[in-house]
Structures
1.
Amino acid sequence: MDIAQITPILATAIATSTPLVFACLGETIAERAGVINLSAEGTILLGAMTSFAIAKTLEGSGTVPSLLAGFAGAAVVGAAIALIVALGTLTLKQSQVAIGFVLALLGASLSSFLGNSFVRIPGPTVPSFKIPGLQNLPLLGNLLFQSDLLVYLSYAAIALVWVYFYRTRAGLMLRAIGEQPNAAFARGTNVVKMRYIYTLIGGAMMGIAGAAFSLDFKAGWSHMHTAGYGWIALAIVIFGGWNPLRVALSCYLFGILQSLASVAQSSIPAIPSQVFNVAPFMLMILLLVLTSSEWVERVLKLLPSPLDRTASELIRSAPPAALGKVFEQD
Amino acid sequence: MTKRIFYYQLASIALAIVFITAIILVVGASPPSVITAMWSGAFGTVGQFARVIATLAPLLLCASGLLFTFTAGLYNLGIEGQIAFGAIVSTLAIRLTQDSLPPALVIVLAILMGGVGGTLWGLLAGVLNVYGRINEIFSGLGLNFVADGLALYLIFGPWKREGVASMSGTEQFPESLWLPTFGNTDASPIALLIAIAAVAITLIILRGTYFGLRLRAVGQNLRASYVLGIPSIRQLLSAFAICGGFAGIAGALQVLAVFHRLIPNISSGLGYLALLVAMLVGLNAWFILPVAFFFSALNIGSLQLPLDLDLESSLAGVIQGTLVLFVLLARGVSESLRKPSTTPLHKGY
Amino acid sequence: MKVELKDISKRFGNVHANDRVSLTVEAGTIHGLLGENGAGKSTLVKVLSGFISRDSGAVLLDGKSVEIKTPADAIARKIGMLHQDPLDFPPLSVLDNFIVGKTGTGLIDRQRSLRQLQQLSTHFNFNLNHYETVANLTVGERQQLEILRLLSLGVSTLILDEPTTGISASQKTALFKAMKQLASEGKSIIFVSHKLEDVEELCDRVTVLRHGKVRGRAEIPCPDAVLIDLMFGRELAPPLKPQTRQSEPALQLEKIRVDTDRLTLRLGDLTAYKGEVIGLAGLEGSGQQQLLLMCAGLLRASTGQIRVNGVEMTHESYSKYLDRGIGYLPADRLKDGLVSGLSIQDHVALRTPSRSLFVDWKETLKQTVQAIATFNIRGKPNTLVERLSGGNQQRTQLALLPVPLNLLLMEHPTRGLDIESVLWVWQQLIARCQTGTTILFMSSDLDEIMRYSDRVIVFSGGQASHPIAVSDLTADRLGQMIGGRLSDTLEPSVIS
């Protein structure tokens, strides 16, 4: 296989990972603030359904307005589900796992029930848009700049979240809240309020991820249209070590696994194609399980120390210390 | 005190009903006709009622198993995979022995092996949790994907039907290997008996044995139970193993009594539904029977919706999820109203 | 800034943590707040720093009454507090910790903050690696960082809560130098401590608290005896305990060293005899708890050996310790000792050695009813333990102890209990001693230690004194030892 063959595979991988990038960044924001939004599966499905239904209904008023309304609707739905998560876990102090899990199932069922009349009909999709100039760059042009606006927006989102986390005061405080809420409180922050805000923002991004599926990369709507992506998004956030850049790269890794699966499908006929559809999910989770277990640490300890340090920085990182815990102000 | 919680629960269920009604109105249907359709879908004919019972059996098994993990303070999201792996091992047992052993023996063996398979899959999540420090939620979800992938591989690879492999599953087993049913319906008395036995065993173990008591202690406070001398790791692993075992038997029943073959996604979401049942029931294990029955009836009854009213059957999931969500929220409200903020003494002053 | 606290009162449940406490700190001075653990010092400064809301009283800054309800309010009033356990963010770098919570432009100007941090570090001669992760810093370095951060916020009142616990001698010197420098620059400093020598070395003036009340004020220098009187009261309670000690050794420790994150306990050798009660005195966190946990089998000693009734126990598992009749009563009863959500009866069943699979609830109920009667627990068999009062929780814990009980290890056995319960609990314990049980207990109530111990070990900063017979103890001597002057009065026991 030469470069000419690999580039389109990679380009497809990067483009098709775009919805996951939005979802995982959203989840990263919430988790960095200390809240696991386990509802991702339901949020993405409901976001996908809502945005498609809105865009389809408004199709008559032009592609751009209908698409914009679709994305906005998905963001609102995502934020609304996140609001229930925040209310249930931050104010009412119930288990984040319980509330999130119920919402994951409820969101999925709701999307199916409410979206019934929109199943398998054509609707508006995000048009492709090649960036003039950049698209002609050697290699990178083909790889990164020959898709549509949503993909470019996802690049911007990655950069923005990264800059926010590591270069702004508010972002520093966001990370602080997820690590030691007591200390953040001592420094004058309203921890619960900030957690509400970040959970809602994260939820909105997951809703947008749903819209990115149904209005662009998996255009249209069907029952359980994006099944599995919410769960995989949760895993990718862990795999990406809660760092927006690594999380995004993990999304692309997942996209590459998917592209490879579809390539391998044709070249290895012995293995049924259906297996290839789930293989990326399996591989991703296996990788996660392998890299996040304590055994890896033990194996890494066997390496010479400088190597060990780089290796563990690359593949390991601790979750935010207060993730999933109830904040009790004394 | 408990009376007040009860009123909150009632209010939350009322709110849930309002929400569900609103959802039904959104799609332009009339709530009474939905109720009628679902009722007739679940109880209209003997055959339909039998299907409710057929769904009830695996649901009860899984929910019973989940009571163990919940009691130990664990969220066993891996239950779907445990069902699937149980079904796979059970199918393997049938394939290996159906030509050499009498059918009755094959059936017994298949059920047992289903339990063994589920136990192993559950223990795997447990080992990853206890020794690998991987949150049981993610190890469970991961193992779900793996079990599903494995089932797909087998169905489309080594165990594929003569001619074309398809999503409809492996070759159907001969009728001698089907669990006997009530008359000409889908409900198997044996499956139901096994499920009810599982519920009974669960109630007895959790209420009456030292094991159940220790499990409760571990679930409530790991540190204090260790100080009290309870071997906590063994307790946690046992909870995973038992839950996996019950789920595996449910998987075997799906093979033997419902589908008569291995199909992709054989758990049909029953494991997750069982999680909802267990969450709703809380520690009042007795409620498991009515709640599971109600949820099964919703599942089967909703199948009538596309036929009668052109509505999606996922309304069942909407109703189940909404009920559980509102009950959880009501629990939160009553707890936060009960606890006025007090600073515990031991925090130093 | 002149800081005045007037008639501050604060109750936690039925404990008066602060009872009309007043404190005035002039600008440019270091004011010591001296008292034993539990005297109410932390409550008072937390009221000032916005962590605790007072029940009554007033806070005045430069004569003006102010409301401080949250830490944010305190920061706005230029009041900063250095907490005993550093409240910082271990996974973040020193520089990021310095920046968290500071206001300024949206984007962080790390270079500018770095310059500020460097400047402040140089000013106080603190040596911090700005890119190091805070998790890798010593407690002393984390304090230095926190002080610099508070100063960069422009605080004019600095509260230090037990800052000398867990830091090295040279860090302490640097800290004190910095404090004096700050005072000379006009800041008001409140220095919370229980260590006499620290207060005497650093402070201009001192206010002594005991049992939530102001017991006196003094200008420094001031004779030790006066301060000790104020801290502990003139009279120590007379010993009450009858002679129960036998001649056989029960617990034998040899060359024990215990390492934990915060503290290394160097104990050397110790022998406790059957029927003996040894009180462990000292400020909380001086190593008493480590000793108790280690003897209970819940914490491994790094070196040394432990024998109970002649049986080697050093490498045994916790369950073996339980089997040998070793009991442990933790201070935090609902966190470490009892399981919330379970009833008294459930606990009794859990502690019943089970041969059978099924719980014999009838028999358990009988045992529970009996235990409730014997231990005078105000509760029913099916009462959940978290619904019991503190005293009744402690009675329940006592009821659950193994029989026979060879060795009993207790943290604050009567904390939060009413007087009647205290007497009753000790009556039970002494009855146990008469049957040969050996007791080691820690307490911050010196009266309790004096009344009920045969011998006392005083802990300070991970070192322990030789056991001293209570009859040889005076308030002075005990106070000085607790205040960190172990070596003035006693050779510390074998330091390995």
2.
Amino acid sequence: MKRSAQKPINEMKLAFPSYSENERFARIAVSGFLSQIDPCIDELSDIKTAVSEGVTNAIVHGYKGTVGIVQLNVKIFEGGRIYIKIQDKGCGIEDVEKAREPLFTTAPEDDRAGLGFAIMETFMEKVRVRSKVGKGTSVVLERTVRSRKQRS
Amino acid sequence: MSTSIKTENDITVAKINGDLDHHTAKFIRGEIDREIAAEHPVRLIIDFSEVTFMDSSGIGLIMGRYKLMQDLGGDVVVASPPAYIKKVLRLAGIDKLTRIVGDVRSAMPHTTPDVKENGISGSTEERKKINEEIGSETN
């Protein structure tokens, strides 16, 4: 099968309820899927951390005490570019700019540090957030990884 | 995920095993806070040597314990974080809030008799290090 440069060379989709147990499952699933391009350990570790932040935001803030479905879509493109979309149909974010500010949190009593977006922005090359109050939020994370084979 | 917590000579050492994320942080926090409430230590050492993953939930955990220990007049020391955890700690500025040391022993002060009793006053280098620490703490 011939695949064009614009189309992903591989893709996966996952949907799971917003139970906090699934935070670990989500990052392990992403890490397992990306293992086929053989990323370096530190790159994989950065991606896992960013995914964990995005999924935790959906669970803690998007669905806030309720249970809804978190969707995860991961695409791999030629050259090691990866695209990860984390989506919820929860409460949405009123002020996305404010939410992205480091140390801003709506849940300090729960020991939330307010660093989720700061970590996603540091560990990934691109972070795009789309949100509508009452409809939900989607976070797209992008980064190009260099496989260990390419490095050697 | 499991946490082993021990308090000796007013120092609580909490060794976290496994992943530290939003799901596990609430259990770990509960265990540490119970120990602090019961023992009133002067120092809390959080040992990260067996932590396999950490996101910003770990930062929240450290910051929360830092505030708690400050209210009690004590402090928090972060011990043995692996490289990828150090990256998250630095990003959050935890290194400006608490001391980060290479191993639990380096986080142990306190008084020379305790050190002798614990039998770790062996080398001159170690003794020098501990004396320096006691000096910096009393200054």
3.
Amino acid sequence: MGETVVKLENMVKRYGDLIALDHFSLEIQAGEIFGLLGPNGSGKTTTINCLLSLLSYDKGEIEIFGKKMSPTAYDIKQQIGIIMQEVAVFDELSVYENIDYFCGLYIHDKETRKQYVEDAIRFVGLEDFVKFRPKKLSGGLLRRLNIACGIAHKPKLIILDEPTVAVDPQSRNKILEGIAELNRNGATVIYTSHYMEEVEQLCTHIVIMDKGKKIAEGTKDELKRMIKNTETVTIEILELPEAVREEIGRLPHIYETEYKDDRFTVRCSGGKHNLIRILDVLKQNDLSFGRVYTELPTLNDVFLEITGKSLRDKED
Amino acid sequence: MFLHNLKYEMKAGLRNRELVIWLILFPMFLGTVFKIAFGSIYEKVDSFSVIPCAVVEDGGEDAALRQVLDSVSEGEDALLKVQYVSAEEADDLLREGEVSGILTADGRLSLTVTEEGLAQTVLRSFAGQYNTNRSVITDSAAENPQAVQQVIESLRAELSPVKDVPLTKGNTDYMVQYFTNLLAMVAMYGSLTGLHITIQNQGNLSKLGARKCCSPTPKSVSICACLTGSAIMQTICMVISVSFLSFILKIRFGGNPALIYLTAILGGLLGVAFGFCIGSIGRFQTGTKTGICFGVSMFCCFCSGLMVGNMKSVVARYAPWFNRINPAALITDSLYYLNIDSDYQRYAVAVISMAVLSAVLILLGFILTRRKKYASL
């Protein structure tokens, strides 16, 4: 830990009048699983494409492993593995051939490559499908092949751009477990997603971005401490008089109440025993209620509080 | 690195179903359609040079007639192929289509035919000329053979306008141009494999291209491997097409067979280079580039006469410069010169033009694609 693997400084990227990256900077340390979280169109993929020297940019500097990144920085590219949002494999080649092809772009020694390819196949669990063509694979298996093609050469820096979009839950869990394992094996990981649960589960350091800007950065706990919400209580209740709702709203540490679709939501900021005090008020007013549950703040709450909109608003 | 790329480029290419359909099966199908459509015309024209006919001598053997018939049935420029048979046998031969007509000698020479055509016209003309000169022939046959020979010469001269006069040792059949244009079309379809090279190596055209651009393999190496792979595949397709047309459909392109293969292969490389260059120009998306490539290729084939036979002459009249840069026209011209010319001067110029144009297009494609960052992906 401590060595800076990736450094982006003051990046600006425009598409005509649209500013995709607006003076965006970040630093990623070795050994991190770095999460880039933001809604669709927030600039995550643009950041990754600039990082990989695929996209030109208007302003800024990019260093990877302490060296300036460029299209011909082959020594840097040698140490990077990329897993794109869309599956990028040859339809005409088998699973084994695809992995061997992409691994061969990095590893020249045949024996080493053979070992690496077999390791990658084992890692993503495609042992039973090595002779299959991509068209014969399910969506989840195809994603795993995509990942195997990106990591077979055992890179030090792995970039995953929304690798779980349109993936079934079982394959998604398998992918997330795999990423954690790659990190345990020593790789630094950059993970972009608009699924906050994944980022929360996986990432040790998170940057939340919106409209090409960094709006928050830190560990998930640090991010959650940035906002006043500490607990959200939800009660299923068929009838809630306005007077009772106001009474609850006046309780200490409660800063927001909402009654919609027979659900009463109460947001609390600090304090203890908030739930007991809320239920006491309901009982005193002879109101019967159904299911009651509390939630700790999520990254969505962080995003909501900072930007005034939900991360999920623009989900696919 | 180069060989690794080449190996998988070849594997992927040879397993590509679309490539096999458009570059191998479709030309075979179209060639067969051409053969069926033009075959009967071709055979009639071909058989016109020697006309099979039956001769029936009702009044016994006619020495003078035999002398004339023998003289027009001999040598490289023979007009007739004569069979002396009985009336019944002659009827059978005519009914079975073995002969084009029956010449019956009974004092005068009369003609029996079952259909009308060029062969029948020649036979009718022969019979008429013979009857006109019959007395000269009969009277002179024994005493003055030289006079008979003069009549025969004049007979030949009368009939020569309706007989092919070969200006070349090649195949002068008009229909051959459709098959040379077919080869040009296969070569121009190579532009699709050439386009495929840019799609697979440019990050803004495909995800596969983006992934390759992220690897430490220099783009020049990857493109060279892809170009080599495409050239090999296109060569295979051209060899299959030429072989299919020559050996299965029995099309005679004329000229040295090895040079026909060489020309077709070079044409295929020109097609690949053309597609590679088109793919490298501009910031269009894959679909647009494919459309442009296909459209331009077809336009070039149209201008060289694939759909309308005399189109190349029309272009030569109004925009002669275009025939000199149109890849399809260069290919058909090369094959034409190879067929028609007795020396290789014009052929060499056309082939060198193809090679130079290929080199220029590849160079241009390289310059436009290498070390590129994209404005948008």
4.
Amino acid sequence: MRIRTRGFGVLAGFALIVSACSSSATAVPIATAAPTTAPTTAASTAPAATASAAPSSAATPAPSFAQMPNLKIGVVTDIGTLDDKGYNEFSFKGAQDGAIAIGVTDPVPSIVPKDASEYAADIQQFVSQKYDVIVTVGFNLTAATVSAAHANPKIRFVGVDQSPECITPAGANDAAFACKGVPATALPNYTSLYFAEDQAGYLAGIVAAYADKGAPTPTGVIGAIGGTTLCAPCVRYIQGYGLGAKSVNPAIVVKSAYVTHDFSNAAFNDPAGGKAFAQTFIQANKPDVLFQVAGKTGNGVIEAACAANIYGIGVDVDQWLSLGAPANACIITSAEKHVESAVAQAIESIAGGTLAAGDILFNAKNDGISAADFHDKASLFGPAVTTALQTALAAMQAGTLQTCPTTGCGVYAP
Amino acid sequence: MTKRSSLAPNRPGPSKVARAWEILAVPVVVTLLSLLVGAVVILGSELIVTGRKFDPFLWFTAYAALVQGAFGGTDAIVSTLVYTTPLVFGGLAVAFGFKAGLFNIGAQGQFLVGALGAVIVGVALADAPAPIAIVAATMAGIIAGGLWGFIPGFLKAVSGAHEVVSTIMLNYVAVQLLAALVSGPLKVPKSPSPVTYDVGNAAYPIVIGGTGHIGIILAIVAAGFVWWLLFRTTWGFEIRSVGANPDAARYAGMRPKLLTIATMTFSGGLAGLAGTSVLLGVTHSMTSAFGTTVGFDSIAVALLARSNPIGVVAAALLFGSMRAGAGLMQINAGIPVELVDVLQATILLFLVASPVLRRVLRLRGVQAGIAETAATNALGTEPTD
């Protein structure tokens, strides 16, 4: 069963992480996945090689982590709030999980910046307080994180979604993106974790296509709403979603729209705006299923979908669990990327001294993505869906399934 | 509507201490009261949020960390100054508008457009000699912000369009303009996410500590300049007169329309300088997430300062220190950054209620001057007493 019930958001504890890792034959301790060169694209198809060297140590049962109870770990999130039921929240929880796993008893503090000019200063706060590990969340913090890593070689930096790493040969942030520096030697204290969102979207697309087929009066249309066209991961989710749906039903119509074209509040932090946007979208396109890729704004999208009696698909985490009843009434699945597990694994590897520098991709091969459980909607789906999902996942693991366009993956095209 | 004759000489009599108290009482008491409210909010949320050990002195831990993060050591103080700098420019921009009876709520948009101007010229001159690049990029920021202020000023002068409405709308235009440019023509082609090139030599040199850029000095100079402009020049006198009573000013031969345009343009230029100081002094490049709360915080700064340029520096320092201390507060006390928003919002609330406060404090309130009258008028409330 590839769609697993995971307690993200509710009982996010160490035990879960361990069981999740050890129960899967594909779980790979990240240190062994160590790529030493930055992939030139974030498309899941391109960096397949980065994880292929991994299985050698995958046989290790229930990894026992090196204990480093005195490690001081701090988190700097992106703008927004810590309890966004998404990116910031689960990266932070991952850091907490990792800290517990390696025996740290002090609470893991976090700083939430108020605006983009604050990133460097907030990272500096942890540097001044002599923290050993600093986790930063989101690609907007890339430059600030790389610069801080370059200036503080003794501190270990972990960036979430800051790939591909681009540094000068001296290890400084490369503003011109010539990317001549080799991470392993030039900046060995910095690692970026990134995800194959298109693979998760692909799985969600399969579920959506089956849900469309099974709807009382199928319209043959499914929809997706992204937060902003500037968010490459959002675009990848939706690109994968379209390909996944068409793999089931080539005739299906996939409509997508983005709430905004900037990083204003409307993109990820405005549920009311998301709801209004989705209502218009639903009226115009009459989809049977609506996939939200817009953080908190997307929670309003789900609300509109439920109100319009169509199905909703959550994003990043199992939103059936994180939103809870009654908000989750129409959620059939969620396109998950396992941010929490990835960050926790990174911290565990730091304690073990095995975290490699550079980009580390989390995809189907190392349990980086999944489609969430159907929960109470399981009765909607026959065995065909499960089979289709399993087949797709196996093909992703084998690296033979294309889940993102060869050109323009992650790039919004109107 | 009755206007106070504050242009007339001050009443004779009160000692220096009493006069200082009359000026400082409201801001100081308001700040203390909001800290008290903040402490109550912390205690209250401790009761609501479960899973944490109840700590009756958490508010003290939080405020201690706030103060330590803002003033505990050279780095902290420099950080406070860096956060204060754009608030001084922004506060001056809003205060300058208040003096002329204009409510420039568009400091936000002018900030962004100013930063855009600075990054465009800064990137173009990244390899030019530093003094040329710095001056040119700074001028570009001021001009771009000024242009963004000129538009609502011009619209008000020719058509009577209220500046509150037009500046708010221009704020949105600025956000979209920034996003379009940063993800379009200004984007580094090879970058996976929208970001501009570095401004290189146009970056402000560091003069204090590790991060204290030259914009800090520029901010103090700007405050002095605005004070001089308002209180020592004919133009400043005309602006204050128009703010106090446009009809009387027109009768006296002044041209309110021209002054409206000039004031909004100058105010926009100052707000643009705020954006410029952040871009050239702190970020050095622009991502599409480049946004700010400086524009709106500036309104609070100007109100707290009663639109006095010197007061703006003090009020900006207060808000800047809260921003600088917020990081350590989050680390040491686990209090979210939103507490700073609570404090700022409470300060604003108490300021709106300042007539009540003044009565409680037994202040006569006569010293408030046109500045506050203009400010409260702009906010749509009638001055009392």
